[in-house]
Amino acid sequence: MVKAVEGVVFPWLDPSRYSFALGIEAGGTTWLAGQTASRHDPTSGRVVSGGSAAEQARICWDKIEAVLDAAGRDVGECTEVVEYLTAEGLDAQDEIAGQRRASCAASTMVVDGLVRPDAMLEVEVVAGGPHHQVRLPQLLPIASDGSVVASGDLVGQCEWVLEEAGRQLAEFGLGLEHVVRTVQQTTPATRRDYRATAEARRRLLGPAFPASTGVLTSRLPHPDVLVALDVWASTAPKEIVRHAEDAYASLTFSPATVADSVVYISGTTAWDPTTGGTIGQGDVGVQAEFVYDQIRQVLEAAGGGIDDLVKTIEYVTPEALANYRDVNTVRENVLGRPFPASTGVAINALLSSDWLIEVEAVAVLNR
């Protein structure tokens, strides 16, 4: 049963105005919305997010602790931390890390912007599981001696991080066949070589492919690498959600996977699997409406519904950020109550220049 975290003491702003929950509980796990340093400034009457990197990180963690406290948890129970950093935030990464209160490894994604223009970071966490899940530390193509593997070679680096994921999963008695979700970051400069990475994914992850999200970021967590990969695997059996099977037959990811009632939904875009075309070119609101309808269809194919969503991550392109409020309207119209927790960030580009938004999602089935 999906339920919102209630009774949160949240003096920074009024969260009831937004189409997301501060936190969602389901299946013994708590998913939190991404938090920035945004707070109401009584002097100007506006919401502001400024301050030094350390100050902003401190406010983010104060907010996270407030939500966890209402859920009866503490930061020691965090099993996932993702820090979305602007270029300014990346340059102040040590200051931000100094404010981090969770002991688990943090993943980094460099973004072109956040919804609050003066924010330099957004932090999202998951606490308490899921118990079947194995979340690897973020994988970069860097050898144990600190050297970059296959320097300048996107295909070689993508193959290496997948193989390294297999080596790390072996320590848990698992293999790449147990992977349920991946998030891969590359840069726009390597977009033309991206298709060539499919062979390694097909060989190492197939035929029961995980859910997957791929985004193009201006910078990566390390200046000399071409890819960053996050991997989730499961000790519980993995099921593949069957949706638009003809369209996905040639692809190296599944629409979604299910493990112990948790549904991992691939990054969903305005790509129409029935025609191969793009829906709503140039209109982020129309694209968001299509995206969330696709997510609904995938969840129904998994035996659930839109009300089972616990978490969404919305990646929008910089040109779509000005009209991001249109996405909020779509969420209010199509999502169930309580709203899922959500994170929204602006990344440099998506894999097609026609796409303005990509939504990755997690749901928990009421089995």
Explain this structure.
It is a single chain. This protein is α+β, with helices and mostly antiparallel strands. It has one domain: RutC-like (60s Ribosomal Protein L30, Chain: A, 2-Layer Sandwich), CATH 3.30.1330.40. Helix content is 24%, strand content 26%. It has eight helices and 19 strands. The radius of gyration is 19 Å and the shape is globular. The N and C termini lie close together (9 Å).
Topology (elements, then pairings):
Blueprint: E1 3-4, E2 23-26, E3 29-32, E4 39-41, E5 46-48, H1 53-70, E6 78-85, H2 87-91, H3 93-99, E7 106-110, E8 113-114, E9 121-127, E10 133-135, H4 154-170, E11 179-186, H5 198-205, E12 211-216, E13 228-234, E14 239-240, H6 245-248, E15 256-259, E16 262-268, H7 284-301, E17 309-316, H8 325-334, E18 341-346, E19 357-364
Parallel strand pairs: 6-7, 11-12, 17-18
Antiparallel strand pairs: 1-2, 2-3, 3-9, 4-5, 6-9, 8-18, 10-13, 11-13, 14-15, 15-16, 16-19, 17-19
- Note the gap between the termini: 9 Å
Structural class: alpha+beta
Q: What is the highest CATH level, the class? A: Alpha Beta
The residue fraction in helices comes out at 10-25%
**What Rg, in angstroms, do the CA atoms define?**
19 Å
Largest beta sheet: strand ordering: 8-18-17-19-16-15-14
Summarize the helix and strand pattern as letters: EEEEEHEHHEEEEHEHEEEHEEHEHEE
- By CATH, the superfamily comes out as RutC-like
Count of domains: 1
Question: The CATH topology is what?
Answer: 60s Ribosomal Protein L30, Chain: A
The counted number of beta strands is 19
Largest sheet: 7 strands, mixed
What is the second-level CATH architecture?
2-Layer Sandwich
Which term fits the overall shape?
globular
Number of helices: 8
Indicate the proportion of strand residues: 25-35%
**Spans where pLDDT lies below 50 across 5 or more residues:** none
Mean model confidence by pLDDT: 96
